[in-house]
Design goal:
Structural class: alpha+beta
Shape: globular
Distance between the termini: 37 Å
Order of helices and strands: HHEEEHHEHHHHEEHEEE
Number of strands: 9
Protein name: IrrE N-terminal-like domain-containing protein
CATH topology of the largest domain: Beta-Lactamase
Oligomer: single chain
Number of domains: 2
CATH class of the largest domain: Alpha Beta
InterPro entries: IrrE_HExxH (IPR010359), Rad_response_metalloprotease (IPR052345)
Low-confidence stretches: none
Length: 262
């Protein structure tokens, strides 16, 4: 796995190539793809993948976006930024010349190292960490702040939650589960790790005392709960807020957890 700082350097190089500073928002990523000299193909590829990067020979490279599903604008932007990662991270670029094409599946979490690296590239390209952190420092760690940052950068709530957790000094975590209430993965802030040590909860079932079981998928849900419902080995009876929302793909549910410091 590449160090995140190396991946961020690749986002900076791409921004410099298309004459964007770290302060410049990327309002139209399709224009950026064209400016960078890549061809973009958008169509129904009769498959469930979200996108691909392709070496077409010579100096020609193609980014493909699959329109088969009704993806959100934020999902599309992240997918295209992810594919730009494969074309701009040096080790991915070399691999692409060997394999000719790299195909990406929907979702932020992957066990594939190059997919994880391309996701890191995507979020740091769309929301440069130094600028994102400065905006985050002006806000409280809350679902309202999450929605503001998501809207400002035109990124999904899932991507904004993960970026926020990686950059905040506060206690919070983010859990993704499926329609069967099985936990697919969770991300915890550094502060959370230090104060609430717990083993992995991946593949566990969501505790039936959680408000996830009352979530209908129609509207975001914010309710109080207990940290031990999610992380059973935590000794103290911490009160938390569960901020529950539909991720917008494959019936996945996101729960953004903030811990009451009192």
């Amino acid at each position: 796995m590449l160090d995140e700082s190396e991946i961020i350097k690749s986002t900076i190089h791409l921004r410099e190539h298309v004459e964007l500073s770290s302060n410049d928002k990327i309002d139209n990523i399709e224009n950026l793809i064209n400016q960078a000299g890549y061809e973009l193909i958008k169509k129904d590829f009769q498959n469930d993948f979200s996108g691909f990067s392709k070496y077409a020979g010579g100096a020609d490279y193609i980014i493909g976006f699959n329109t088969r599903h009704n993806w959100s604008t934020e999902f599309k932007r992240f997918t295209l930024a992810h594919e730009l990662g494969h074309l701009n991270i040096p080790s991915h670029f070399s691999l692409l010349h060997q394999k000719s094409i790299l195909v990406s599946s929907p979702g932020y979490y992957s066990i594939d190292t190059i997919e994880q690296e391309a996701n890191i590239f995507a979020i740091n390209l769309l929301a440069p960490p130094n600028i994102f952190k400065s905006k985050l420092d002006e806000l409280s760690i809350s679902f309202s702040s999450l929605k503001k940052l998501s809207s400002y950068y035109k990124i999904s709530l899932e991507a904004a939650a993960i970026h926020m957790i990686n950059l905040t000094d506060d206690d919070c975590s983010f859990v993704v589960s499926n329609s069967e209430r099985e936990i697919l993965y969770d991300i915890r802030s550094e502060s959370f790790f230090k104060r609430h040590r717990h083993t992995t909860i991946k593949n566990n079932n969501v505790d039936n005392r959680s408000n996830v079981y009352t979530f209908t998928g129609n509207d975001d849900l914010i309710e109080e709960s207990k940290l031990k419902y999610w992380y059973p080995s935590v000794q103290n009876d911490f009160t938390i807020e569960e901020h529950i929302f539909d991720l917008g793909y494959q019936n996945k549910i996101g729960t953004f957890i903030t811990v009451d410091p009192n």
